[in-house]
Amino acid sequence: MRGMTAAYTSELAEALSADVLDRLLRYVRIDTQSDRAHAQSPSTPGQLELGRLLVEELHAIGLSDVAQDAAGFVTATLPGNVDGAPVIGLLAHLDTSPDESGTNVEPLVHPDYDGGVLALPRRGTVLDPARMPELVPRIGHDLVTTSGDTLLGADDKAGMAEIMAAVAHLAAHPELPRATVRVGFTPDEEIGEGAKLFDIEAFGASCAYTLDGSELGEFTDETFTASSADVVITGVDVHPGFATGKLVNAARLAGRVLAGLPAELTPEATSEREGFVHVYSVEATAGKATIRTIVRDFDDERLAQHVAVLRRTAEEVVATEPRARVEVEVAHQYPNMRSYLDRHPGVSDAALEAIRREGLEPTHVPIRGGTDGSILSARGLPTPNLFTGGHEYHSVREWASVQDMASAAAVAVRLAGVWAERR
Ligand SMILES: [Zn+2]
To answer: Does the pLDDT at position 2 exceed 70?
Structure first.
């Protein structure tokens, strides 16, 4: 038996690692940042460019039904080789976050990380294990970082590279029993749009997995349940010189509403399974004030209670001034995927089994956010989330471990095998 480098979780992972890294370095150089201001799909042309590259590569691997549609979705099929095995999906998103520059990404590979501070060449960006404890167990790993002034785009091009390396490996090894694997790359996840347009019926899988998580071994079948809630206060605007007894200042009422919201119900004061009301924007004049919030929890009833706290606070403040009016506009954003996944326990079980076969003990992490799987699960395609090995997403400090990415690709290979046994 050939000796294995210690940092790899299996010989399979080691065998996949060079291909995963190659692909990641290729994909991150294409700027695919999504744009909230554009309503068409995809929101930016770079996502089509990356999609075209993926189409070429999927053909080269030998997959069938390779297609890219006008909205940016790329799909392909790796036919199974076991009679009666189900069709499963592997998904990653094409776009990167609008929160930090994704232009001219120049990835750097740091072989055999020594556990020290990594100083990147631009903008004084530093990766310091004292502040980023996830670096500490990565001594001996090969790390991929940015040059310091862009995001890396491992979110979610690590997931994409892992899926591509996994299906390439499976296609080259027909002796490995596998379910039929449908591959899907989706646009505009970061702006919450792509999954709404995904053609689940045409995709034809009975379940799917996003590779869009982070820490090695992590598995997610639970996300926030999410609403937005805007408080709109209408005052009475009068020229201040003639305002005596007439002006009703909406901006000042908004200030009192903000002061009245419970300080313990904020993102900065909550963690783990606690929900919050997050004020992210306030626009106010004397005549009109709008407080925009997002409200989050893991439980629909508690989510409704948080919205009720916001509503009651706003109404009580504004009730002190009978000439002012207040409206609270609540919109549902995405559900906790858990309630949908609970109806299909085999989907999560298969993922946990694949992670264990890679020699890892799965960790169950409820995501304080949403994934494409939140929307897809609610729309009828059960879709939990697997780790990718990337960290510090949406920032110039984003990094990924080659060894952990290889483990994620190996988990994807093993998942096709687990499902081949479930006829
Ligand atoms: Zn992502």
So the answer is: no
